[in-house]
Write a structure and sequence with these properties.
Chain A: Pfam families: ABC_tran (PF00005). Chain A: Keywords: ATP-binding, Nucleotide-binding. Chain A: Residues 20-256 form the ABC transporter domain. The structure holds two protein chains of two kinds. In chain A, β11 (225-230) and β12 form a beta hairpin. By secondary structure, chain A is an alpha/beta fold. Chain A has eight helices and twelve strands. Chain A is globular. Chain A has helices at 58-66, 88-93, 111-116, 129-142, 159-171, 189-204, 216-222, 244-252, and strands at residues 20-29, 32-42, 46-52, 73-78, 81-83, 96-99, 122-123, 126-127, 177-181, 208-212, 225-230, 233-239. In chain A, 47% of the residues are buried. By secondary structure, chain B is α/β, with parallel strands linked by helices. Chain B has three domains: 6-73, Arc Repressor Mutant, subunit A; 78-192 and 367-381, ATPase, nucleotide binding domain (Nucleotidyltransferase, domain 5); 202-360, ATPase, nucleotide binding domain (Nucleotidyltransferase, domain 5, 2-Layer Sandwich), CATH 3.30.420.40. Chain B has a five-stranded mixed β-sheet, with helices on both faces. Chain B has a five-stranded mixed β-sheet with strand order 13-12-11-14-15, with helices on both faces. In chain B, α1 (6-24) packs antiparallel against α12 (366-381). The longest helix of chain B has 25 residues, at 293-317. Chain B starts with 5 loop residues before the first helix and ends in a 9-residue tail after the last helix. The chains are: A alpha/beta, B alpha/beta. The A-B interface holds A 12-16, 43, 45-46, 188-190, 192-193, 196-197, 200, 204, 216-217, 220-222, 224-225, 239-241, 243-244 and B 88, 90, 105-114, 117, 121-122, 124-125, 128-129, 132, 165, 274-278, 280, 282-283, 286.
Chain lengths: 262, 390
């Protein structure tokens, strides 16, 4: 197994044992090799940013963690033990929650209904609306989110607020790892600011955050470590303080794999 | 207008009143008389006249058990925006002419954020925030920007070399002016924070103060006799680059052993043992407060280094109060106690005892509040508040 970091170079520090590790993970879509022999460690209380050009394999990596794609080769370890993530439900049960780019919110339902869709609280045919609303406010408060009303259909909310609702829904099962796929794409500056603050708060609460994005400036603002993917392979792991030029060089392949990582 | 004439005197008195109200945000007619030295009858007349003209607004309140007329600037005069670029964060706030903050937004920035992208996005953010409070862009009167490097107060240009990558020689004022189309002033962020603490925070009622910000970078701002001290090229108060160890490591400013190399976030985090993971300044604060011995030691030593540097500053300027701000001061007395002790040992002993060292009251908002204040100052002197500037 090839380590992406050159021997002799000190890898970026990471705390304790990883929560989730990928070892030698590969994934093909027909003739396209989306991921090739990928090793990643994900730690609690850390933001791991995954960056790369279009087609670098970022979203496939998120899909593998979410249980949406089953790897063709390699292992996924949770707390050091091999697991099979064959469905989003299996990933959730193991503490990995994913928020996809398209958010999968139902526009006509309100915030509470969206949060509890498919796992409503209640007994028999009766729903416990009060309990669901209480828990909704609880999780929104934890995120310090400013949402005008939880009984408003989500179509009335801004892009940043919708992102917050999607994250809140992911947090309901108390996951240890939160995977965010392109959370700031198509958002205005103000909403981007809200999402970046949200990521900082998730990290502060001890979650492991995997942030997939191609907006290097945004990830550098919040990342502890940056994993650069190129053509499906790990091109290097960099610290959050790495300069924009070094990151760009790695993304575009202007430097050899591992040569710039500290 | 002939100088000395009745009309010019009245005009000057009006400007004095508007200036006093603008700088303090809100005060009663009696207090106005005290501050401006004008007679209560004159104050009452001018306030009435300016209220009718829509410049001032009055409301009934109670002071010392007696009814008093509270005077503020009229809210609908327009909006001002304050911007603060930090080393790792950006804050933007929007306020009306009565200094009521209407919207405030913060966001983390990359370690190596660039001037062009940063300013373009900030201008967009200001526009989005104006929309979010239901105002229109032409209500914006002025903008003030704080940056964490020395900047020429006259031209608004970053004057240092290599202190912030990609910001050397950038004309911050001109770039923002081009984006937003209103007058823009630029200052060092610590100077703005000092102005805010002087007017609205921990140094209210003191006639001079030294403000020091200890965060990712280290900087100081000075207000003496009610005026912010900026110096020839905006370098006044660069305490982070005072030499503490002349054989120390080379700093981003090009000198050796600067204070910032001892107490800046990068240095503090670098002293912690490896294996604790990638830590941020916020983590250091949380751990030190939670009792982690290594983190407490790092904070304690930082307090002592700051005490030494501040003692030198106090011996030269002798401020009435020292205000400590920035993210590191969130640990409270863990930092301030060693700082006070070291400062006390090293300042010239006087019968008045050492100067008071207090924690910032405005916290992380100090810089941006100062920017709002300076923006409103510049709007007033540009004459857009309905009176001729003074």
């Amino acid at each position: 197994m090839t380590e992406p970091i050159e021997p002799g170079a000190t890898p970026p520090r990471a705390s304790g044992a990883p929560v989730v590790s990928l070892r030698g993970v590969s994934k093909h879509f027909g003739g396209v090799r989306a991921l090739v022999d990928v090793d990643v460690d994900i730690h609690e209380h850390e933001v791991l940013a995954v960056v790369g050009d279009n087609g670098a394999g970022k979203s496939t990596l998120a899909g593998v963690l979410a249980g949406a794609h089953r790897p063709d080769a390699g292992q996924v370890l949770v707390d050091g033990s091999p697991v099979v993530l064959d469905s989003p439900a299996a990933a959730r049960a193991l503490g990995i929650a994913t928020v996809f780019q398209e958010l999968a919110l139902v526009d006509d339902l309100d915030v509470v209904e969206n949060l509890f869709l498919g796992h409503e609280v209640g007994s028999g045919v009766f729903l416990d609306e009060v309990e669901m609303e209480r828990r909704t406010w609880q999780v929104l408060d934890q995120l310090a989110a400013s949402v005008p009303s939880v009984r408003e259909p989500v179509r009335a909310l801004s892009g940043g607020q919708r992102q917050v609702i999607a994250v809140a829904r992911a947090l309901l099962g108390s996951p240890r790892v939160v995977v965010l796929d392109e959370p700031t794409a198509s958002l205005g500056v103000r909403q981007t600011a809200e999402v970046l603050n949200l990521i900082t708060r998730l990290r502060g609460r001890g979650h492991a955050v995997v942030l997939v994005s191609h907006q290097a400036g945004d990830l550098q603002a919040v990342a502890d470590r940056i994993l650069v993917l190129r053509l499906g392979r790990v091109h290097g792991t960099y610290t959050g303080e790495t300069s924009y030029e070094d990151l760009l060089a790695a993304m575009t392949g202007a430097v050899l794999p591992g040569s710039g990582g500290r | 207008m002939t100088p000395g004439s009745q009309t010019s005197l009245r005009e000057a008195n009006r400007a004095r009143i508007v200036s006093a109200v603008q700088q303090r945000g809100s005060l009663t007619q009696i207090e106005l008389a005290g501050v401006t030295g004008l007679s209560p009858a004159t104050i009452s007349n001018i306030v009435k006249e300016l209220s009718a003209a829509g410049v001032l607004a009055t409301s009934q309140s109670v002071r010392n058990g007696r009814r008093a007329l509270q005077v503020t600037l009229a809210r609908n005069l327009g909006l001002v925006a304050g911007v603060r670029f930090g080393v790792r964060s950006l804050s933007v706030a929007l306020a009306d002419a009565s200094m009521r903050v209407l919207a405030e937004q913060r966001m983390p920035l990359a370690a190596d954020h660039r001037a062009d992208v940063g300013m373009r996005r900030t201008a967009l953010l200001v526009t989005e925030m104006i929309e979010s409070v239901g105002a229109s862009p032409d209500e914006l009167l002025a903008v003030s920007v704080g940056v964490p490097v020395p900047v020429d107060p006259a031209s608004g240009e970053v004057v240092t070399l290599g202190m912030m990558r990609g910001w050397d020689g950038v004309d911050v004022a001109a770039l923002f002016q081009a984006e937003l189309g209103v007058p823009v002033t630029v200052d060092n962020d610590a100077t703005l924070a000092a102005i805010a603490e002087y007017r609205y925070g921990a140094a209210q009622g003191f006639d001079s103060l030294a403000y020091i910000r200890v965060s990712h970078g280290v900087g100081a701002g000075l207000v003496i006799g009610g005026h912010a001290v900026r110096g020839r090229a905006g370098v006044a108060g660069e305490i982070g680059h005072v030499s503490v160890d002349e054989n120390g490591p080379v700093c981003r400013c090009g000198n050796r052993g600067c204070l910032e190399m001892l107490v800046g976030a990068t240095s503090l985090l670098g002293m912690l043992p490896a294996g604790a993971g990638h830590l941020t300044l916020a983590d250091l604060v949380t751990r030190a407060t939670g009792g982690d011995p290594g983190c407490r030691r790092v904070v304690y030593d930082a307090g002592r280094h700051l005490g030494v540097a501040l003692a030198n500053l106090c011996n030269i300027v002798d401020p009435a109060i020292v205000v400590v701000g920035g993210q590191l001061v969130e640990v409270g007395d863990l930092l301030l106690e060693p700082l006070r002790t070291t400062l006390g040992q090293r300042v010239v002993a006087t019968s008045r005892g050492p100067v008071d060292v207090v924690r910032s009251e405005l916290g992380g908002s100090a810089g941006v509040r100062g920017a709002l204040a300076v923006a409103l100052d510049s709007a007033r002197s540009a004459g857009v508040l309905g009176v001729v500037g003074s």
